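USER: My hope is that you can spare some time for a protein that puzzles me. I am handing you a single protein, as its sequence and its fold in token form. Walk me, if you will, through where the backbone shape changes along the chain. The protein I mean follows directly.
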Amino acid sequence: MARRGLLLINLGTPDDPGVPAVRRYLKEFLSDPRVLDINPLSRAILLYGAILPFRSPQSASAYKKIWTERGSPLLVHGQDLAHKLATALGDAWQVELGMRYQSPSIASALERFRSGGIDRMVVFPLFPHYSSAAWGSAIEKLTIEARKRWSDPALTIVAPYYDHPAFIDAVTGIARPLLADFQPDRIVFSYHGLPERQIVKNDTSGNRHCLRNESCCETLTTVNKNCYRAQCFATTRALSEGLGLALHSWETTFQSRMGRIPWIRPYTDERVRELAKSGVRRLAVLSPTFTADCLETLEEIGLRARADFIAHGGTELRLVPSLNSSDAWLRAITAIVKDAAGGPERQIPMRT
């Protein structure tokens, strides 16, 4: 039987936490018109005049706080995940990791598949929700690189899996024992934010639905089925149900905003302070949009948000780890891949 390839795609990370490497990463990332979706001249002025000179040293300092002996946590978890999947799936599959920005690149992953004689592959973005800035950009880059080859590989692209039962089960499996041990007063589901204008661009109703009222994301319809914010709320509903949470014990927020333009609300940093001031003493934070721990989880939430929470009256903020390379995540990936591509020849075994 012909071997198949499984390509795991994540956003990317600097090669090291020094300012030059972080600057290179931010330059490639923020030069993407799907990320900074403004006219090219304005993007260049903003990038070279403000972001790179000032944000590069700030981001480098933040990366240094979470960097490990093996390197960036995002890359380390991705490498471990790819290795475990390759071992579990056996010789019938070749598993590779490719980053949208920096290394290891998507192009290098495709070259490794070519060298291995793989011309049929399943593409698994390691972000559960659809956004043009992440999911759309990664698939666009993949398509461009694939078409550079004389013989285009056959690609099966896994659709956003924000409410897939296997994904929900994996997250709840990681979170449940930690929440039971911590006994939080409140649980926040914090997702990466997006500018409001990017949400409105996906409104198929002629800009009559998205962000027009506070309840626009409460249900998924044909109008907002590709809305990132609505998909995040759907994930929260599924996770709260899977965890058996009381109705008013949790909420959805959005983090990592940049600049002064409106981003989707509520804002995580504001709610963390408000919750502390309101009397919440033990706060748990889950970040389901990040399948691997990274700068946004470990530094932004685990360090900065925790310090902010305590400074405003809270006692403890506990970050629930991402899926990383856990066995629960391995099992979920194979289940989702099976739904997308007819199923791998060998299922990942349950481990004890």
In short: Residues 343-352 have pLDDT under 50 and may be disordered. Residues 40-66 form the longest helix (27 residues). Residues 165-319 form a domain with the Rossmann fold fold (CATH 3.40.50.1400).
